[in-house]
TrEMBL record:
Coiled coil: none annotated. It comes from Corythaeola cristata. Residues 9-20 have a biased composition (Polar residues). This is GOGA2 protein. The keyword Coiled coil applies. Residues 1-20 are annotated as: Disordered. GO terms for cellular component: cis-Golgi network; Golgi cis cisterna; Golgi cisterna membrane. InterPro entries: GOLGA, GOLGA_cons_dom. Keywords: Coiled coil.
Length: 139
């Protein structure tokens, strides 16, 4: 029975590893497809530059490529900054939720204590009422 359980556990662990490897493989395939697309785009750009060879000299082509690179770097920097801002906002939101959760837990604890106290008082008053009824009956 123990051996069977151990084998089931190992099987489960191996299944998780296989699932992880399949996920990594899929991600690598997507990355490879992306790289192939970028390569195709680069080849198209080379063909365009080759076809325009007479109209634009190498310096102009280089200048255009550098300008495009600078533009893309600016976009990446902006997206990176936006990502950092969103992460900071998320972290602030998480912290706020933690604080609110703590406040609500304290409030629930207080209310629970109040309910317990009121139940004790009710029981005490009920005992007094019974005692007074007994006294009235006796009188």
């Amino acid at each position: 029975s123990k051996s069977s359980e151990e084998i089931k556990q190992q099987n489960s662990e191996l299944s998780e590893q296989v699932h992880s490897l399949v996920s990594k493989n899929s991600a690598m395939k997507l990355d490879m497809e992306d790289l192939h697309k970028k390569l195709e785009m680069a080849e198209l750009m080379i063909q365009q530059f080759s076809n325009q060879g007479g109209s634009l000299d190498a310096n102009q082509q280089l200048q255009m490529a550098l300008e495009e690179k600078a533009s893309l770097e600016t976009q990446v920097a902006q997206l990176s900054e936006s990502l950092h801002q969103l992460q900071a906002e998320r972290d602030q939101y998480v912290e706020k939720l933690k604080e609110e959760r703590s406040i609500w837990q304290q409030r629930v604890q207080q209310l629970s204590e109040q309910v317990h106290t009121m139940a004790e008082e009710k029981e005490k008053h009920m005992a007094q009422i019974r005692e007074l009824e007994a006294n009235v009956t006796e009188l």
